[in-house]
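Let us walk through a complete example step by step. Step one is to write down the protein sequence. Step two is to encode the small molecule, nicotinamide-adenine-dinucleotide, as a SMILES string so that its atoms and bonds are unambiguous. Step three, shown after the inputs, is the structure prediction itself.
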Amino acid sequence: MSSLQLNFKSLKAGPFRCGSGPRRFPTKPGSVRCAAASPTRSYAITLLPGDGIGPEVISVAKNVLLLAGAIEGIEFNFHEMPVGGAALDLTGVPLPGETLSAAQQSDAVLLGAIGGYKWDNNEKHLKPETGLLQLREGLKVFANLRPATVLPQLVDASTLKKEVAEGVDLMVVRELTGGIYFGKPRGFSTNQNGEEIGLNTEVYSISEIDRIARVAFETARKRRGKLCSVDKANVLEASMLWRKRVMAIALEYPDVELTHMYVDNAAMQLVRNPKQFDTIVTNNIFGDILSDEASMITGSIGMLPSASLGEKGPGLFEPIHGSAPDIAGQDKANPLATVLSAAMLLKYGLGEADAAERIEAAVLHTLDRGFRTGDIYSDGNKLVGCKEMGEEVLKAVDLNVAATV
Ligand SMILES: NC(=O)c1ccc[n+]([C@@H]2O[C@H](COP(=O)([O-])OP(=O)(O)OC[C@H]3O[C@@H](n4cnc5c(N)ncnc54)[C@H](O)[C@@H]3O)[C@@H](O)[C@H]2O)c1
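Step three: the predicted structure of the complex.
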């Protein structure tokens, strides 16, 4: 059975069923050939620890990848490179050329987080965040997949009532390389009254909308077959075109039920009745906001992974949280979002669904045994730090071996 078939099987099951199914996004040819030809597969992974808690959580995820990989006959060649503030301190730029080319040449990229107080007042081109935007642009990853799943073990961590949060399992597909974050003209200027203005432009082309819509329909098709496109088509021309093109692409996917929602209503519905959503597709800025809102339904930002995919080349996998400078270096970070990002890397980036499932099962097992970092702690559980949480996940990955042998 090929690795892609296995991938399909695994995506249908389990609470982490993120739903993009067998990779419809073109898979890196080398990875597939490698996986199919030999029981021992080898992948080059660029690790970008970044700033703040980034190095702490990446260190945990790397060890988990190594162990799960070893059990599944996968070898990883890790290449660690600086990005964000760490790169600024080392090289004077937030994304050194060497980091980008290492990332482009690898099979997948795993990022911790970037940013911190130290660089907050830097000029824009010297901000850590600029490095992240350049990385996404350089890897041409236009589709950001963010699952928000309320795990039964953590339902009490949600700020929503249990009956509202229980069973939520949704995926936000966010357009990542277009819209107002990149649109031109932009900048500062002066209006007719001589007053200073800040200017940004929300702009989308048909090809940009069509390709993200296709990713979203494919994703919905592998989940519960429901896609909600979120826009502001009652006000914005860019949204009017968005809606028109999403409806046109829908003709290719008659099996997917398409609905539309204005973004203000979607923000409200996400806290009123989040279970109504299966897959949401939206533009860059609405996706940025709605996916953070969706994340809070699950209880902790420290639990949520993400995948950013392009048409070809390596994907970028990262937790959705930032560098958490308030807890950096204190062994308090929850590493599970990064561990689950590593699982997404295996599943979506490399087509290694068995190894991904092994990691997901280990995370669930660790939570079942009551281990909690501070952000997800509740009475009756065992409070652990980042390192200990990592060790417990490793034990669970090992346990899984015993259970399957
Ligand atoms: N993709 C990224 O790298 C990314 C994303 C968002 C923010 N940032 C940057 O991170 C810095 C801090 O931003 P912020 O405070 O708005 O967002 P943040 O996500 O870093 O932190 C928000 C809150 O959540 C907590 N938190 C975050 N991740 C956690 C984890 N894994 N475990 C436990 N608690 C966790 C933090 O302690 C903090 O209280 C800024 O410089 C910002 O630009 C980077």
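Step four is interpretation. Residues 54-72 form the longest helix (19 residues).
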